[in-house]
Automatic annotation (TrEMBL):
Subunit record text: Dimer; disulfide-linked.
Oxidoreductase in keyword set: yes
Record domain Saposin A-type: where: 27-67
Subcellular location: Secreted; Lysosome
Protein name as it appears in the record: Gamma-interferon-inducible lysosomal thiol reductase
Signal peptide span: 1-23
EC number(s) on file: 1.8.-.-
Gene Ontology cellular component list: extracellular region; lysosome
Species: Pleuronectes platessa
PANTHER family (alphabetical): GAMMA-INTERFERON INDUCIBLE LYSOSOMAL THIOL REDUCTASE GILT, GAMMA-INTERFERON-INDUCIBLE LYSOSOMAL THIOL REDUCTASE
GO annotation, biological process: immune system process
Length: 263
């Protein structure tokens, strides 16, 4: 009995911790039949029911069907170990996306100031912060190719060690995807080609990037857009969205700075 207790407790603590992070009511994910990660709860009627979030999903599907305009496309050109990139991704991009995912899309291109050289049919890469950064860029690239990786990348970038945390982050957010499958992409031709595509996307930037994090909004980069994105992406996305604005855009307060009070 003793040996069983610790893991069970750990799972409970983890569940409570994950839920408290976004102020979700405790009924969320309380059902043991809910096996999918939060990003997929609304993907089908069955999983919505199993995960106890049917009402939420129907409402958010309703909001989506009301949507009249194109979402605001936010792209981030970055490097996995660049401190400014990590700060923007963790403190600004993800919190904004959590609130505004119905009116924005995110594209992540991990490459930045890396340099590629052709080597036969393949490429070799040199990264600004060394080989570990190349590895981090590659893991994130392969994850994005295999799953909806935004939360896994957030988890990695907010951890003390971006690379070492990768496997646990995957296990938390997408236990169905095997780490071995990700690593065979990382080490193989597939990852090499995907990273080459990141290099080409980065080289195609107009104007060319001068630093990272480098942000484009609807494919466009200006100093003004960059500044606004860095200081308040939330306000920028709300103001650029041309359709009916979601309620969270309403006030002047940035809602994710509010508190969860104990009653
Ligand atoms: C929400 O919409 C998607 C796409 O239109 C659909 O596949 C899904 O079943 C809907 N979910 C619910 C809970 O109605
Ligand atoms: C993953 O990469 C392969 C090429 O290796 C490509 O054909 C496929 O479209 C990519 N999938 C996604 C979701 O990016």
């Amino acid at each position: 009995m003793r040996t069983m207790k610790a893991p069970v407790l750990l799972v409970l603590v983890l569940t409570v911790w994950l839920n408290s992070g976004d102020c979700a009511p405790s009924s969320f994910s309380s059902s043991s039949s809910c096996s999918s990660p939060p990003s997929q709860w609304c993907s089908s009627l069955d999983s919505a029911v199993q995960c106890g979030v049917l009402k939420h999903c129907l409402e958010s599907n309703f909001t989506r069907s009301r949507q009249t305009a194109d979402p605001v496309a936010v792209a981030l050109y970055y490097e996995s170990l660049c401190p400014g990139c990590r700060m923007f991704l963790v403190n600004t991009l993800l919190p904004t996306w959590v609130l505004l995912h119905e009116i924005m899309t995110i594209t992540l291109v991990p490459y930045g100031n890396a340099v590629e050289k052709p080597d036969g049919q393949k490429y070799t890469f040199e990264c600004q912060h060394g080989e570990q950064e190349c590895l981090g860029n590659m893991i994130e690239t392969c994850l994005m190719n295999k799953t909806n990786a935004i939360q896994i990348i957030y988890c990695m970038e907010s951890s003390y060690d971006v690379i070492k945390s990768a496997q646990s982050c995957l296990e938390i957010y997408n236990p169905d995807l095997k780490w071995d499958e990700v690593m065979s992409c990382v080490k193989g031709d597939e990852g090499n080609q995907l990273m080459h595509q990141n290099a080409m996307k980065t080289k195609a930037l107009n104007p060319p990037h001068k630093y990272v994090p480098w942000i484009t909004i609807n494919g466009e980069h200006t100093e003004d857009l960059q500044d606004k994105a860095m200081t308040s992406l939330f306000t920028l996305v709300c103001s650029m969205y041309k359709g009916d604005k979601p309620a969270v855009c309403g006030g002047t307060q940035r809602v994710y700075k509010s508190y969860c009070h104990n009653e």
